Amino acid sequence: MIRIEDVSHSIGPARILHDIRTGFPKGRLTALIGPNGAGKSTLVRLVGRLENLQSGRISVDGHDLALTQTLELARVMAILGQDTAIASRLRVRELVAFGRWPHHNGRPRADDHARVETALENFALTQLADRFLDEISGGQAQRAHIAMCFAQDTPWLLLDEPLNNLDMSHSRALMQRVSDLVRRQGRSVVMVVHEINYAAAWADHIIAMKDGRIMAEGDPDTVLNQRTLSELYDADVQVSRHQDRPLVLHHA
Amino acid sequence: MRYLPGAILVLALLMLASLTVGAASVDLTTIRQDPYAMLVLLESRLPRTLAVALTGSALAVAGVVLQSLVRNRFVGPETTGTAESAALGLLAITILAPGAPIWARMGVASLAAMAGTALFVTIIRRLPVREVMLVPIAGLVLAGVLRAIATFIGWQTDLLQYVDGWLMAGEFSGVIAGRYELLWIAALAAGLAWFAADRFAILGLGDQVATGLGLSVRAVMRLGLAVVAVVMAMVMTTVGLIPFLGLVVPNIVARIMGDNLRASIPVVAVFGAALLLACDLIGRLIRYPYEIPVGTILGVIGAAIFLWMLYARPARG
Ligand SMILES: Nc1ncnc2c1ncn2[C@@H]1O[C@H](COP(=O)(O)OP(=O)(O)O)[C@@H](O)[C@H]1O
Ligand SMILES: [Mg+2]
């Protein structure tokens, strides 16, 4: 369980998050939804200790963020930031291999190499493994970053808009892989999802944010209704059903 | 790793050449019967060859470290105010404690170099990442300001000739046994950088990724700053400023091998030593038996390589 208690955040005079109090359930796939600028990335970055906590308290499986060594946290959660552009000239395999760093601190064992190869395979990167990151497409680089997070092999996975740049088939493959991690291996995943129907189809738990506040949270059937979504996005939204899951229709 | 053996072979040949080239003839095959040649070899040629090689590899590695700290390929340890800060430190201790022992002077020079480099890195990290060319410009401006301050203080205190000595184009003609050994400390610092290569490579991926992988960004920054500062302070006080080396060598190696620093730092070190030795040899041969300072030769060659670099890959940082 990730607990978030009374977390507020400001940048300069602007208040970005207002007294957020919520939790991410363990062993579930949680989707964060909401319009641009709602504060989703800020919240994820705070949980992933990429941003300093200004007020309130966050704990991951009982590890208080403020009191836990960052290396120890790197074995508990992996985080994929929204902006994955990097200037380094690394090969795909080298990037993915850095995901194992928290476990071996520079002395990889056979097991570490095996996990890197598995991660490369899982994201269809084996063919590209020896290419430089600045010589592949944006979607391929995005998959390499996700593979690095998977190679980190942590109980928690925080993904900020992982579907960025991914085509339909790779998006679906990623969601399948994530859902597999949750259901077969008991991992917990929190992801910011832009395309709401991915949340509708795959998430166990949904947190809807707007203007730095949580507007609604619960299972998909509770949160994804016409009234909540229309208010969330300030737009007319219809909700129908498909294969016993909500299906959100947002073309006018 | 496949580039390393070839680079080592080239370096070994250059070192051999460096041992035999000079005003007095040294024939390595008959040296056992020739006490004078032996003396020249041990007191002058070998120290000089080692000094050039140590300087070349330490500067090139410091360049790699600096470039990963600021995530910009267009800077080198000689374009960031590091040497000028070290000169200010030396100036301060010369004025305040003229009789201070050599280790105290070196310590102060290193600390001042570290403070100056830290200032540069702090400025750089506030610039927008996409402004690739602002970074080297900021470095040159900072270096210019620090140099002006050092010159002013030197002038006021009649120490200008020392300041000029520290900040002039470097050369190795004055190197003899007993006058270059501080360079081993520079090489040691470069070795430390190799030891921590993964950390610098991960820092190069950005603060976010580094934090996510459990690294303390501040600790890695401090280590990197210390490496760059120690290398620059030792090189500057022993041989003066060597331009371009710490800038171009890391760039060329990164183009070929990428930024997996654990694999590339040894190649950078060997290549840096080989390039500086080649330039030193050219300087010794071109107007034989007179010498042209290696800094001048490298200025010409380095500028050419740098221009080629700018045109060959302008878009990426
Ligand atoms: N560096 C910054 N300076 C000022 N405001 C910022 C900065 N970064 C983000 N914000 C603001 O914080 C709010 C939340 O941003 P973010 O968490 O990225 O939203 P989301 O991920 O939900 O789109 C937005 O209104 C954004 O404009
Ligand atoms: Mg966002």
Automatic annotation (TrEMBL), chain A:
<keyword id="KW-0813">Transport</keyword>
<keyword id="KW-0406">Ion transport</keyword>
<dbReference type="Pfam" id="PF00005">
    <property type="entry name" value="ABC_tran"/>
</dbReference>
<keyword id="KW-0410">Iron transport</keyword>
<dbReference type="GO" id="GO:0016887">
    <property type="term" value="F:ATP hydrolysis activity"/>
</dbReference>
<dbReference type="InterPro" id="IPR051535">
    <property type="entry name" value="Siderophore_ABC-ATPase"/>
</dbReference>
<dbReference type="GO" id="GO:0005524">
    <property type="term" value="F:ATP binding"/>
</dbReference>
<feature type="domain" description="ABC transporter">
    <location>
        <begin position="2"/>
        <end position="236"/>
    </location>
</feature>
<keyword id="KW-1003">Cell membrane</keyword>
<keyword id="KW-0067">ATP-binding</keyword>
<keyword id="KW-0472">Membrane</keyword>
<keyword id="KW-0408">Iron</keyword>
<comment type="similarity">
    <text>Belongs to the ABC transporter superfamily.</text>
</comment>
<dbReference type="GO" id="GO:0006826">
    <property type="term" value="P:iron ion transport"/>
</dbReference>
<keyword id="KW-0547">Nucleotide-binding</keyword>
<dbReference type="InterPro" id="IPR003439">
    <property type="entry name" value="ABC_transporter-like_ATP-bd"/>
</dbReference>
<dbReference type="InterPro" id="IPR003593">
    <property type="entry name" value="AAA+_ATPase"/>
</dbReference>
<dbReference type="InterPro" id="IPR027417">
    <property type="entry name" value="P-loop_NTPase"/>
</dbReference>
<protein>
    <submittedName>
        <fullName>ATP-binding cassette domain-containing protein</fullName>
    </submittedName>
</protein>
<dbReference type="GO" id="GO:0005886">
    <property type="term" value="C:plasma membrane"/>
</dbReference>
